Amino acid sequence: MTLEETRGRRLQGFAIQLVTLTLLPLTALLVIISFGSITIHQNEMRMLISQRDERAVQAATVALSERLNHQAALLQALADRAAAEGGSPETILSDSSYLLNSFDGGVAFYSPQGARLAASTGQAVWSARPIADLIRQTVDKGQPAYSAPFNDSALAGIAFTVAAPSRNQMIIAIGVVSPTALDLLSLTHELGSGPEAHTIVVSADGQLLFESSAKSDPVDLLAHPGVKPALRGESGSTYVNDPQRGTEFAVAYSPVAPVGWALVMEEPWSDVVNPLMQTSQVGPLVLIPALVLAGVALAFAVRSVIRPLQELERQAGKLASGDFTAIERPVGGIGEIASLQLTLARMARQIRAYQDSIRRYLGALTQGQEDERRRLARELHDDTVQSLIALDQRVQLAQHAMKTGAPDTAERLAEVRRLTASLIEEVRRVIRALRPIYLEDLGLLTALEMLTQDIEKTTGIRGTFRTEGAAVRLRPQHEIAAYRIVQEALNNVARHAGASAVRVEAAFIAGSLVVRVQDNGKGFTAPRGAGDLAASGHYGLLGMQERAELIGARLSIQSAPGAGTTVELQLPL
Q1: What is the set of domains in the chain, with CATH numbers?
Q2: What is the Cα–Cα distance from 196 to 204, expressed in whole angstroms?
Q3: E-strand spans in 489-553?
Q4: First-to-last CA distance in the chain?
Q5: Taking Cα atoms as reference points, which of 152, 143, 158, 157 lies closest to residue 75?
Q6: Are 213 and 221 in contact, with CB atoms under 8 Å apart?
Q7: 90-127: b or e for each residue (b if 16 or more CB lie within 10 Å)?
Q8: 573 Cβ partners below 8 Å, 6+ apart?
Q9: Distance set, CA 262 to CA 226, 230, 374, 489 (Å)
Q10: Which of 290, 308, 295 is nearest to 15 (CA)?
Q11: C-alpha R_g of the chain
């Protein structure tokens, strides 16, 4: 089977999987969502309508309470005026006729003992009205009071009285108001959203004070939904099924605070929801063109998005492996993918430039360090060591001259000689560490052998050095780089490996130099790449890697916990 046939079968299988795993579940999901959304939509609408009706009823009761409080404030102002001026109550009533329009049953002044002082309407009318209990309630509380509704002959209907005392409680102003004067129709005309919406106002004793349409049963008002909770001072909303009318009603209710009345509004659920629900039923029909568009969009996505992204992913993988030219090959697809590829290519070029800059910088830095070490080594060798040797000679002459002197003086001079000799050796050791002069004189192999001997002298780790092949001299920068890599490897063995033996091998084979440092220490988990060296804190290994790259060599590190470590350098000659 050819590569093209294999790729064609993979694409066909991918298309089948795409239909099976994407289009069919998407279709089922859309059908479930469409029909399930009707129920969800209905529940949400029920909650929204109940909240809307409850807020509207509460706003209407607040407005009604403000009107009642305003009437009480008007009466209290009249009572205060009558008590303050000391004039004729009849005159005050006649002068305040503009304030009496809110009281269609009239206004009267009474004393706290119940004596009528003046009235805006006939005396006989006021004699028939329940005033005594209201006056006692007002006097006891010292604030406005409202009576229960009663049938008033003058108004030919239901009315209630409002009483307000003066501040010194010398005069009580009483007004008679009918529900019509409260203009309840204007307060409630915006309640509900359909022709079947119905609003009622019920007094604390169950009397019907107002209804927006003649539908309520006056005998059973207390059993009406929402009336009893509102009379208890509660606000809220509920849904009630009416079997007689065969529909469900949304009921909202709220109390009228000053008088303890109940305002209840109901509207059929069908009047609000049916138009929206009918529109929602058409929703599943939209699935047909939606699915067609989804299929077209999916095919477009496969051709112009998925495949280019897959190719771009492969190129990005090659880029991560170090192939900076792989990302340059166009992958096609939509403009955003092409723009992304251009951005990645530009980033790859920048990274490559940065790597080159870092290598050049490290090369210059390394060369500067080596120059400084060479200078310091020469100075120590030519000046410091020669001076110390001269000092040692002078001490010997002094010791010889002092042989006939005190023995203690000779012993001290001998100690000075020993210390001087030790200092000379230490300075020479520092010189070797800074710049192994014998590397230039005797070559790389001799320098590596001396490094191996030094680790055994300083740490006690048994060191073995072995060579293979015909040795050749390398360029100075290659020799010093190989020397520093082996030196760092041996330092790691001494500091971290916990080894008892280390072996250094140098082989000139097949046109290359292979240097291997192998120990029997505890080992470690070697990083997979050079990029992981810095992240894991192996800066010494990173420096070795950089030195190897500067001279065109390949450095490999093999290690495992408990299996020791092997560092191998391969340098083409």
Answers
A1: 14-277 (3.30.450.20), 443-572 (3.30.565.10)
A2: 26
A3: 501-509, 512-519
A4: 46
A5: 143
A6: no
A7: eebbeebeebbebbbbbbbbbeeeeeebbbbeeeebbe
A8: 472, 474, 508, 511, 512, 513
A9: 8, 5, 105, 94
A10: 295
A11: 53
523 dihedral zone (left: phi>0; alpha: psi -120 to 50; beta): left
Instruction: Give the pair of three-digit tokens for residue 61.
Output: 């009761």
Q: Residue 388 belongs to what H/E stretch?
A: helix 385-401
Tokens of 355: 């790597």
Q: How far is CA 394 from the centre of its chain?
A: 80
Q: What are 104-163's pLDDT values in tens digits?
A: 888 988 999 988 888 887 777 888 888 888 889 898 888 999 999 998 888 888 899 999
pLDDT given at position 188: 72
pLDDT given for residue 23 in this prediction = 63
Q: Which two tokens stand for residue 517?
A: 């440092």
Candidates 204, 224, 189, 182; CA nearest to 67 is 182
Distance (Å) of CA 290 to CA 30, 32, 63, 297 = 10, 15, 50, 10
Q: Give the helix ranges, DSSP H, for 443-507.
A: 444-459, 476-492
Instruction: Kindly compute the dihedral angle of the four CA atoms of residues 390, 395, 398, 403, in this order, to the nearest 10 degrees.
Output: -140
Burial class (CB in 10 A: 0-12, 13-18, 19+), 2: exposed
Q: Which residue has the higher pLDDT, 361 or 291?
A: 291
Exposed, middle or buried by CB within 10 Å (0-12, 13-18, 19+), for 215? exposed
Q: Using CA of residue 148, residue 149, residue 155, residue 156, what is the dihedral sign?
A: negative
Residue 83 · residue 166 · CB < 8 Å: yes
* Percent of the chain whose pLDDT exceeds 70: 72
Cα separation, 458 vs 447, whole angstroms: 16
Contact 456, 463 (CB under 8 A): yes
Rounded Cα distance, 207 and 200, in Å: 10
In this structure, what token pair is assigned to residue 499?
A: 């080894």
Provide the residue type at 17 as one letter. Q
514 has pLDDT over 90 = yes
What is the residue type of 539? Y
Residues facing residue 515 across a β-bridge: 506, 569
Coil vs helix vs strand at 242: strand
pTM (2 decimals)? 0.45
Give the distance from CA 514 to its chain's centroid.
Answer: 54
Backbone angles phi, psi at 457, to 5 degrees: -70, -40
